[in-house]
Design a protein that fits this description.
This protein is of the alpha/beta class. The protein folds into two domains: 208 residues, Rossmann fold (3-Layer(aba) Sandwich); 39 residues. Helices cover 36% and strands 16% of the residues. It contains ten helices and seven strands. Strand 1 and strand 2 form a beta hairpin. Helix 7 crosses helix 8. It starts with 17 loop residues before the first helix and ends in a 6-residue tail after the last helix.
Length: 281
Amino acid sequence: MPTAWCRGRRRAGDLLDRTDRAAPRRGRRRARPCGAGPAGPAPRLDWRPCVQGSPFDCATAKVPLDYDDQGGRTIELAVIRRKATGPGRRIGSLFFNPGGPGGPGTIQMPQNYEKFPREVRERFDIVSWDPRGIGNSTAVDCFGSPEAAAEWAGGHAVGFPVGARERATWIAAYRDLSRRCERRNPELLRHVSTADTARDLDGLRRAVGDSQLTYLGISYGTFLGATYANLFPAAAACSSPRYGLGSGTGGAGGSVGGSGVRPRHRSCSRRASSVHPGWTT
């Protein structure tokens, strides 16, 4: 395959996303050939109950901060799993990203677990994680204290800005937030991107022992799914990235439980049958 350079390309997954373009310029990596690069070893997952008696298992995965320097600094990813409920019927893992960017999967997957179709819960371990930079994973910390965070939050309107004055205040506040994050976490912030998260996802796929990825993404998770499919086309077994606008409660819950996911589930079932022998709808 001819070498193609990521910078300037417009296909999803062949370039770093908007997060990268907004990241600090100092120390930014040069353009490099497109593709996932060397995989490196899969992270180890030591599953144990999240809390005593819980049906959900938790683990911590160590992954490279910079996939171009796999012998360098590592960061942690918080991972959660609910095992397949059908005795003897499990065929693999379904990875779930609730969107955001920045939605914590360790919280939102358990909240929405019962909204996954029953046949999916019977056949798949449902797995999610807090993407790098947020939640219980190695997180970008933009404030030195809770008081500083509260002071920043109180300086602009809550929710979506309305009118020119609120928009100007909102934009100024988030520019200030970007500067604060850059000062406190410049190295980590340079490696919080959709492309990095897609590489994390592939490491988690390999860690659970699946030869190919089965995936459901909501909202921003659709872009993550497209990025993964471009970086790892041979491993994308059955990705179902959808926007979170389904019926039901709305958001991730509505999309997972809404009617819109079921036709796609049937389509995925047909594809999965060729990847996972014994799969039936």
